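User: Structure with zinc ion, tokens only please.
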Amino acid sequence: MWVLMIKIQIAPSLLSLEPWMLEDAVRSIEGTADRLHIDIMDGSFVPKKTFNLETVRHLRGFSSLPFDVHLMAVNPEDRIEAYVEAGADILFIHVEALKSPEEALDRARELGVRCGLALNPETPALRLERALRKLDLVLVMTVKPGLPRQKFMLEVLPKVSEIRRAKPYADLVVDGGINPSTAPLAVKAGANILVAGSAVFDKPDPVKAIEEIRRSVSSLEP
Ligand code: DX5
Ligand code: ZN
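Assistant:
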């Protein structure tokens, strides 16, 4: 079990919402969430197409939350600049879609944007190896990318701990299937940023849902 040295943050994900629900949903959690997780799917890296640059631009127009844009897209390195201009604060790009993770990170650094690498559940932590020293942000998927409301994949937890051991002070995001029961498991494994979609926005009161997830890990905070 990890005693985290860094604050635990909750990043609600919008994936389970219909486009017309986004604005009210984001406004409702503005004062409770730590960050906002926006899943961009291009229909190639994953079958579905979801939000896009326009979505980010529109939400940026009124939200002051930090935007974590999760690019589930091919050639993500070519999209970094556009999402930064649209309002992304942090970008996650998938190692599975990159020829050279290190070059992509260098490119993001040149643009002055924090960029993390994302790993699908079946991708070993080893894939980060050469890029690891340049990384201070990693997203570990605990569901198959592409859909909300999937079951948390417990078998991914050892990989979370493996990455935490290698990067004690990095921001380590767990994304997929997070709820008040799985959140403590993710934090004990080493996560400090929790992405929760359906556990927040499928509930009648998203603010209460975020607070319930936060309570479930409060005893694990430093
Ligand atoms: C899945 C997305 C996740 C998803 C999480 O491809 O990357 O961010 O929206 O949704 P839940 O919390 O419902 O698993
Ligand atoms: Zn995501």
